[in-house]
Design brief:
This protein is of the alpha/beta class and about 230 residues long. It has one domain: Rossmann fold (3-Layer(aba) Sandwich). About 30% of the residues lie in helices and about 25% in strands. It is globular, with a radius of gyration of 16 Å. The two termini are about 20 Å apart.
């Protein structure tokens, strides 16, 4: 499988994906779409991963390259390429599908419980009904028309959705490594204010053992993308 990953900030650690790709014999190309984006990649990509970032999808004036990335993702969707969007990527998918993305009234930072809705999806066959995942976001989105809501949290009603069988949006971060978390806790320490769904750096570090479980869940999702046939519309 040929996998293309969009990484939006320099210290984002993609080792959870690169290790899985190496184990499975897949080809993984990681690029920052702000600096490199080629429509020819659409011809050879089987799975597109749109990762997180500190920007918002509605900030095209501040980040002009977002418009080109959205056009690329929309083309990938129209061609039936499998897509997983994470955090910023999930919000981008929601916007492309016609839903509103906006600043949430609260932020979720730290390890928060995710609850499945009971709706099934081929890529989530091994995902447990409840689990904790790392989160760091202040934006949320409305559910796109025609999408299926797959998961929620106490603070955020839209944590995961699917659009058909080949587009999956995850608001939460199963892929975040301890090294990346430490960078976030240092560089974005100003966001760790006292609030109901913002955990302290100490509490986040205390629960870093959950990374191994998160990686296991993520790799099971990725395994299912390989097994699932492409549904071309």
């Amino acid at each position: 499988m040929n996998i293309l990953a969009f990484r939006h900030f320099d210290f984002d650690d993609t080792s959870a994906f690169s290790e899985w790709a190496q184990w499975g014999g897949h080809q993984l190309k990681i690029v920052n779409p702000a600096f490199e984006l080629d429509k020819k990649w659409l011809e050879s990509t089987d799975l597109l991963l749109i990762l997180g970032g500190p920007m918002s999808v509605y900030q095209e004036e501040a980040y002009p390259w977002l418009a080109a990335e959205k056009r690329f993702v929309k083309s990938a969707m129209e061609q039936g390429i499998k897509i997983i969007g994470i955090c910023l990527g999930a919000q981008m998918l929601a916007e492309i599908l016609g839903a509103k993305v906006y600043r949430h009234s609260i932020k979720e930072i730290g390890w928060h419980r995710i609850e499945r809705t009971g709706e099934e999806h081929p890529w989530l066959q091994q995902m447990p009904g409840e689990f904790h995942s790392f989160q760091w976001h202040g934006d949320t989105f409305d559910l796109p028309e025609g999408a299926t809501l797959l998961a929620r949290s106490e603070a955020c009603g839209h944590q995961a959705f699917a659009y058909g069988n080949d587009v999956l949006a995850l608001q939460f971060h199963l892929e975040t490594t301890p090294a990346c978390m430490e960078q976030m806790l240092t560089r974005w320490a100003g966001e760790l204010i006292e609030a109901p769904y913002i955990q302290s750096a100490a509490e986040i570090r205390l629960n870093m053992q959950r990374v191994a479980v998160s990686f296991h869940i993520l790799h099971q999702v990725l395994d299912q993308t390989v097994l699932s046939p492409v549904q071309v519309s």
